[in-house]
Amino acid sequence: MKCPFCGHENTRVIDSRPAEENNSIRRRRVCDECDKRFTTYEKIETIPLIVVKKDNNREAYDRTKIEAGVLRACHKRPISADQIKTLVDEVETEIFSMEEKEEPRPIRIRWQQDTANMRRWWLDVPWQLKNNYALTIPKGALADVAEQQNDSIAVNYTGVDPEKFATFIVNVVGKSDEASYIVQLLNESGKLLQEKTGVHSGVCRFNYVPAGNVKFRIIEDMNDNGRWDTGNLVERRQPERAEYYMDDKNIDTFAAKENWEVELTIDMNKVFAPVTMQSLAELLEKREALRLQKVLEERAKNPRRNTNSNTSNTTSTMGGGFNSGMNTMMNGLR
């Protein structure tokens, strides 16, 4: 414990005794440098409390603010400092003994029916950043036209900061005004992040895209049912065509960064162009060139690793040549 008078780090305990009804230990210390004495208290470390303000902002619990408020309220009153300290201790003990560190409060919500799809409803909530929300729908609160009721539903949400995500604005140019598509947003490993169905010519917006590399996969929804349909051998029907989007530079992976807004134009006439042997060969050549470019970039990033790999390959080649030469010589002697 550092001395509060001279700042010397070597202090020692000369007396210890329980205090505050055995909730803390009072220790008297003496500094080895200036010989001055001071008192410290040892208390149990607890989980920090979060105080919810009237404007829904949150801040860490501070005991000194309670003490300051009580002191202002007891100004010019016959209340001693020990009584104020006892009062604050009782309040603090009651707060820390609560099971809930933050008491949930109900908020007003509003249901909005989608004008394009009457079976879809939107939940309008005054979301706050970084706040936690719990949506609870009791059993039997909802019913369909067949009078089938829902089970109990409990979903947790967290208000996220929009500046921590990217936004992609996709200008879709369809083959025709009636053509329908499914646009899927995938991460670099191919996991589906977002999906937009019933996309026609116009603007398609992807909000809250996490940082990283993403790809776009487009499905030509021929029957406009909002899902990919497989083929049927009996009906001689081909499966719906699905293609990955590549720009004019043959790049199919795009970077998503925090607080970025990226705009793309996807021409479905190019994405779903007729497949010929020439176009297939060109596509394979482009993909191979892109793969080789990535390999060269990785080698440029790790030159030492490539040097070790080349050295090991050269050594193995030399060793193989030496061994084959020795085997040939021995066979000749025999």
Q: Average pLDDT across residues?
A: 82
Distance between the termini: 86 Å
β-sheet strand percentage: 25-35%
The geometry reads as elongated
Order of helices and strands: EEEEEHHEEEEEEEEEEEEHHH
Q: From the alpha-carbon coordinates, what is the Rg to the nearest angstrom?
A: 35 Å
Low-confidence stretches: 314-319
What structural class do the secondary elements suggest? alpha+beta
Q: Supply the number of helical segments.
A: 5
Helix content: 25-40%
Largest sheet: 5 strands, antiparallel
> How many strands in all?
17
What does this structure look like?
α1 packs across α2. This protein is 26% helix and 31% strand. β11 and β12 form a beta hairpin. The chain is built from five helices and 17 strands. The radius of gyration is 35 Å and the shape is elongated. About 2% of the residues have low confidence. The chain has 334 residues and is α+β, with helices and mostly antiparallel strands. Strands 11, 12, 14, 15 and 16 form a five-stranded antiparallel β-sheet that branches.
